[in-house]
Design a protein that fits this description.
binds zinc ion, 12 strands, 24% helix, 6-stranded mixed beta sheet, 4-stranded parallel beta sheet
């Protein structure tokens, strides 16, 4: 998330590719004010330490880590085990550090011009957090006809960073430690589907979607 007026930004879920993140920050002269973690799976948390080291080396201030600190503790300390499980080189990923700012359901991420509301959405992982903004300006790719070159439009509205709860046409996997499908479906129905229909959903993987589209079309959640 970046504020183009002030250069302040928040990095969400740096799973890896820290040099690519660093290039992005440098090209746009952004200052990282916070790192927010939705959950401590390796593909979301495995790059936190490396990113902090990178930022310290490039003379920036080490940003505070915002994360949950009740249900994700075990997961946070198991990153190298997760690497082994997925056949990834263990040395490249470090355990996620303890949060500097502990957040839980209902808390505000209040950083620079960003005011996001933290929503505890267990199911994919026990301490999973989504982040909701009443109003953000974002760029959306629109292709008028399938197969045509898409163009970018700028819109302002409510935005949900959904992590690995809700995807376009799918939901997060529930077969990893601490996962539970019934819990995930309740999290989505009771905590995400009550958000405004037009809310832009930006999942942790895959294309954007909206609350309205997923209520209507998601095969895991359609009400019979
Ligand atoms: Zn995950």
């Amino acid at each position: 998330l970046s504020d183009t007026d002030t250069g302040d930004c928040v990095v969400v879920d740096p799973g890896g590719e820290v040099e690519r993140i660093g290039r992005y920050l440098e090209e746009r002269s952004l200052r990282v004010k916070a790192i927010f973690l939705t959950h401590a799976h390796i593909d979301h948390a495995g790059g936190i330490v490396a990113l902090m080291e990178y930022l310290e080396k490039s003379n920036s201030v080490k940003p505070p880590l915002y994360s949950e600190n009740e249900f994700e503790i075990e997961m946070r300390g198991s990153i190298s085990r997760q690497a082994a499980m997925f056949g990834l080189p263990e040395g490249e990923y470090q355990n996620a550090p303890e949060p500097d700012v502990v957040v839980k359901d209902g808390d505000l991420l209040d950083v620079g011009s960003f005011r996001g509301r933290v929503i505890h959405t267990p199911g994919h992982s026990p301490g999973h957090l989504a982040l909701y903004f009443d109003s953000l300006t974002f760029v959306r790719s629109v292709s008028p006809i399938e197969g045509q070159i898409s163009s970018d439009v700028t819109e302002t509205g409510s935005v949900l960073l959904a992590g690995d709860t809700l995807f376009a046409g799918s939901i997060g996997r529930c077969d990893l430690p601490g996962g539970d499908e019934a819990t995930l479906l309740s999290s989505i129905r009771e905590k995400l589907f009550i958000l405004p229909d037009e809310t832009r959903v930006m999942p942790g993987h895959g294309p954007d979607t909206s609350i309205a589209i997923e209520k209507r079309e998601n095969p895991y959640l359609r009400s019979e």
